């Protein structure tokens, strides 16, 4: 599936709204899309965008139904398939060779040519309908770019890093120090070739956001999700490959020692991120498909499209986390915690201190190291029910005994850290506490009505004539 086929699917399934009236990429598209996100609305194809000949697709991942249309299967079924994927059974592991294991059969294949075959005489980013989403943004940002680089060993990486447009031929490259693209840049000889694909198969876009172990090819992972190998085409000016059916391709390089101020940028925290120094991406070649579609997203205070992607990741990778933590029952990443501020997990508690052991295990798994709060509850608690979780925490927790705080790394977007990329995290043990964990008595029995009484009242309910059920 390419992006155009996905758009047709959305149209056929009643999941796409099409706007023919002219709209402004400066703030207006973002405001419209924000309203759609908050209302649980459809994907939107803006056909007439001021200053550009290209239409803009927004909110393509903005509901679980659209995510399942994108993946071509229910998330639960994909999660079970992932559980058997041997290549990913250790999410916290180091290099994972993709030449062996189940991903080998999903290795991308070479296409004869790229669909984005219209090459501009001179790269000109002003021809793209790049959005400015918030009034305080430092400029327009490309927000759904699949950024492709290679490491010294020639292994490919694809990540999703925002690109602030500085002028017609340069952007910022907003990768954080822990991102694989940034690691490839640090290990380079000073200049790193970069390719950016815009408008890919939605599973490719998702794969670029997935918390994969280093060394796992995101395009192979996308092929596994899609059920068929992803076709890649060679770039024109750099030694890289991008999805052959991408709508738009930017090629160029970043160079050590060259940085510019990037930001501020409205972020998923609901606040503006600070101005920071980031590498400069020089665009040396720009090409697109005839009648290309430009994809974009906006981020801000939840609910937003990116939160749905985060929750999908939690569902898909839960079976894999169980390889590291078999006692793990369920996982919820509340949208208010925007990915890495909070995780609520349930476990089958088996020994004193088990909840603290689970917290530390989770903090050792890839990007979960940035999770500021982990709340652990017993297996019978529904982690997806905020009321039940709150009731459990407020009743079960004795702060001096059940709360753990530790120093540790913080996400670059963390607002409350003691310093940049460093702060603290808290674990809250909301499980039933045992005597040998310091509880004064055995945990009391929870209130529950006699089952025979429930059945008898249920049978008598019609004769009671009460206006509720």
Structure commentary:
This protein is α+β, with helices and mostly antiparallel strands. It has two domains: 3-295, Pnp Oxidase, Chain A (Roll), CATH 2.30.110; 305-437, UbiD C-terminal domain-like (3-Layer(aba) Sandwich), CATH 3.40.1670. Helices cover 26% and strands 23% of the residues. The chain has twelve helices and 24 strands. The protein has helices spanning 3-12, 28-38, 64-71, 75-83, 180-187, 202-207, 218-226, 305-324, 354-363, 386-396, 399-402, 451-464, and strands at residues 16-19, 43-46, 56-58, 109-110, 118-119, 141-142, 146-150, 156-160, 163-164, 170-172, 191-198, 231-234, 241-243, 248-255, 259-262, 265-266, 272-273, 276-288, 294-295, 328-332, 342-347, 373-378, 403-409, 422-429. The strands form six sheets. Strands 5, 7, 8, 10, 11, 14, 15 and 18 form an eight-stranded antiparallel beta sheet that branches. Strands 20-21-22-24-23 form a five-stranded mixed beta sheet, sandwiched between helices. Strands 1-2-3-19 form a four-stranded mixed beta sheet. α4 packs parallel to α8. It is globular, with a radius of gyration of 24 Å. The two termini are 46 Å apart.
């Amino acid at each position: 599936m390419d992006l155009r086929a996905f758009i047709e699917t959305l149209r056929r399934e009643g999941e796409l709204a099409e706007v023919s009236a002219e709209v402004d990429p400066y703030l207006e598209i973002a405001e419209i899309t924000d309203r759609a996100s908050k209302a649980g609305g459809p994907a939107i194809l803006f056909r007439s965008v001021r200053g550009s000949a290209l239409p803009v697709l927004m909110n393509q991942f903005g509901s679980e139904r659209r995510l399942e249309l994108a993946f071509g299967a229910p998330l639960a079924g994909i999660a079970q398939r992932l559980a058997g994927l041997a290549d990913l059974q250790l999410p916290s592991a180091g290099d994972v060779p993709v030449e062996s294991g189940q991903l080998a059969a999903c290795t991308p294949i070479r296409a004869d040519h790229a669909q984005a075959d219209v090459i501009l005489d001179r790269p000109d980013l002003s021809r793209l309908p790049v959005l400015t989403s918030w009034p305080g943004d430092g400029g327009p940002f490309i927000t759904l770019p699949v950024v492709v680089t290679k490491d010294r060993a020639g292994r490919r990486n694809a990540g999703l890093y925002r690109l602030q447009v500085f002028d017609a031929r340069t952007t910022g490259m907003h990768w954080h120090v822990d991102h694989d693209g940034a690691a490839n840049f640090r290990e380079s000889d000073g200049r790193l070739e970069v390719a950016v694909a815009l408008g890919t198969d939605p599973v490719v876009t998702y794969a670029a956001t997935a918390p994969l172990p280093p060394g796992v090819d995101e395009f192979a992972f996308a092929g596994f999700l899609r059920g068929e190998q992803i076709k890649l085409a060679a770039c024109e000016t750099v030694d890289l490959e991008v999805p052959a059916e991408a709508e738009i391709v930017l090629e160029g390089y970043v160079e050590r020692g060259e940085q510019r101020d990037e930001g501020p940028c409205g972020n998923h925290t609901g606040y503006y991120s600070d101005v920071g120094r980031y590498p400069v991406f020089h665009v040396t070649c720009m090409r697109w498909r005839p009648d290309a579609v430009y994809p974009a997203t906006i981020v801000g205070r939840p609910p937003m499209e990116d939160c749905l992607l985060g929750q999908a990741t939690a569902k898909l990778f839960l079976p894999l986390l169980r390889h590291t933590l078999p006692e793990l029952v369920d996982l919820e990443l509340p949208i208010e915690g925007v990915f890495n501020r909070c995780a609520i997990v349930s476990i089958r508690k088996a020994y004193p201190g088990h909840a603290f052991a689970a917290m530390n295990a989770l903090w050792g798994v890839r990007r979960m190291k940035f999770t500021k709060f982990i709340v652990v509850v017993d297996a019978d608690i529904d982690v997806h029910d905020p009321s039940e979780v709150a009731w459990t925490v407020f009743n079960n927790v004795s702060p001096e005994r059940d709360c753990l705080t530790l120093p540790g790394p913080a996400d670059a977007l963390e607002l409350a850290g003691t310093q940049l990329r460093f702060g603290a995290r808290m674990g809250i043990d909301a499980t039933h506490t045992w005597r040998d964990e310091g509880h004064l008595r055995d945990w009391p029995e929870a209130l529950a009505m006699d089952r025979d009484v429930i059945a008898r009242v249920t049978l008598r309910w019609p004769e009671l004539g009460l206006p509720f059920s």
